[in-house]
Specification:
DNAb Helicase, Chain A; 2 domains; 9-stranded mixed beta sheet; 16 helices
């Protein structure tokens, strides 16, 4: 016979649940607050103080400490003494453990980057919210009269669900996954292969086994002016027009420069002619020719304007990019493929003694984004000048500049190598020069390596397939 739960039992159960949730949340809250107190990056501080509220914290002293941190930051001050002074002004310094506890928080944090803990902090917050709502519901409806065992089982099921969700947020498998379960998941993945993202260059996609999978880091290496940015932009527009959500982050060119290059590619208009259509210097073009060019520009722009593609000129640090990816994920608008131009221009989150260490930090962060946000990351990289001094100028993995970590972390490495063969062709009424460029797939973690050759038309900043005769 089921035993009815009294009001007192409901209150005790609710208290036990909240105590357990608080215990689970405190270590994350401490690490987050400690990293926040150590952080000197204004991008992180601005995002966090405008997004996170004190409700994210289960432990009341942590709520007061966070409110003090926000107040101090908004006043333009940023040091531990100012936070303590603000707590004293609030009358909460003693309740929060004073200066010793603030120091302890810093010591407990393994990093100076609070963004590292934000997703876990948010997951704990959401778990508490849902559980509290369920407890209120049970307390407000006495007619349900669930027994203690049934309530405990319901709460247990809820916790298990949130543990699974938390594991997904952190991209870690649940604990104690058996081989049998993993084997079944593997078989399922074979029968339901994940969708790959193609570059639009057929021969290259075929070499890459029909494209690149989510979670992959692709490096595109070349010497300056050998087409790596043009290739990234062409891949970017192809994926956007194919229905993927694509983002292009430039650390070198402005947004306007990127737009002009995309228009040249998509409208088949020489890059140098586009500004003439909008200036008084365009007198060298006939009115009819100018009108045709403008129609082509509008058509190309209209096709892309309907797609979910984003272009941005970024500051030279990783934090700003990570903030945008997190915002997009929290808004359920995950990016499918991210292009970064180019890797060596990015400022690392932490200054290191040697540049190769910084480059290693950067490439590991890019790889982490690919896995954590379940997307493809394509980054351009500069190759060493050593290729120019060798008799055989074909680049190799050893020519990736500044860090062996580039080769180690990348899933795919594509190296562009210009050849001596040149040609001339007429496209859209424009006669332009071109040259052959080899795409060397020097590393492919899950497939073949090899080389394919395309024609590069510098006037259009575009790669095209070659005929058997070497033309287009």
């Amino acid at each position: 016979m089921m035993t009815k739960m009294t009001d007192e039992q409901r209150r005790k159960t609710a208290l036990q649940v909240l105590i357990e949730l608080t215990k689970q949340s405190i270590p994350t809250e401490q690490a987050f607050l400690g990293a926040l107190l150590l952080c000197q990056d204004d991008d992180q501080l601005r995002f966090i103080t405008s997004t996170v509220t004190s409700d994210y914290f289960s432990y009341e002293p942590h709520r007061h400490i966070y409110n003090a941190i926000v107040s101090v930051y908004r006043q333009g001050r940023w040091d531990l003494v100012s936070v303590l002074t603000e707590l004293e002004r609030m009358g909460m310094a003693e309740v929060c453990g004073g200066f010793p506890y603030l120091i302890q928080l810093q010591d407990l944090s393994p990093t100076i980057m609070p963004m590292e803990f934000l997703e876990t902090l948010t997951a704990h917050f959401l778990k508490r919210q849902v559980t509290e709502q369920m407890i209120r519901f049970l307390q407000a409806v006495p007619s349900l009269e669930p027994n203690l065992t049934a309530l405990a089982q319901s709460l247990s099921d809820l916790y298990d669900g949130f543990k699974q969700r938390l594991a997904t947020l952190q991209h870690q498998p649940p604990a104690d996954v058996s081989f049998g379960h993993t084997f079944k998941e593997w078989l399922k993945s074979l029968s339901e292969p994940s969708q790959k993202i193609q570059s639009g260059l057929y021969d290259l996609d075929e070499l890459l086994d029909d494209g690149v999978e989510n979670g992959s880091l692709v490096l595109v290496g070349a010497r300056p002016s050998h087409g790596k940015t043009a290739f990234l932009l062409q891949w970017f527009t192809h994926t956007a027009l194919s229905g993927f959500r694509a983002s292009f982050l430039s650390y070198e060119m402005t947004t306007n420069q990127i737009i002009q290059r995309i228009i040249a590619q998509q409208a088949w208009i020489p890059y140098s002619l586009i500004p003439l259509c909008f200036s008084q210097n365009g007198a060298s073009l006939t009115a009819e020719r100018t009108e045709d060019i403008m129609k082509s520009i509008v058509t190309a722009a209209s096709r892309l304007a309907e797609k979910e593609c984003f272009i941005e000129f970024c500051p030279d640090n990783l934090i700003s990019v990570r903030l945008k990816l997190l915002q997009q994920k929290m808004n359920d608008r995950k990016i499918d493929i991210l292009f970064v131009d180019y890797l060596q221009q990015i400022r690392p989150p932490v200054r290191r003694e040697h540049r190769y260490q910084e480059v290693g930090d950067i490439v590991r962060e890019l790889k982490r984004w690919a896995r954590e946000y379940e997307m493809v990351v394509v980054a351009a990289v500069q190759l060493s000048r050593a290729t120019e001094s060798r008799a055989d100028k074909r680049p190799t993995l050893a020519d990736l500049r500044e860090s062996g970590d580039l080769e180690a972390e990348a899933d795919v490495v594509i190296l562009l190598h210009p050849l001596e063969q040149r040609f001339q062709t007429t496209v859209n009424g424009f006669t332009v020069d071109g040259r052959h460029i080899d795409f060397l797939v020097a590393k492919n973690r899950n497939g073949r390596v090899g080389a394919v050759t395309f024609g590069f038309l510098p006037a259009f900043l575009r790669f095209v397939p070659l005929t058997k005769e070497g033309g287009v």
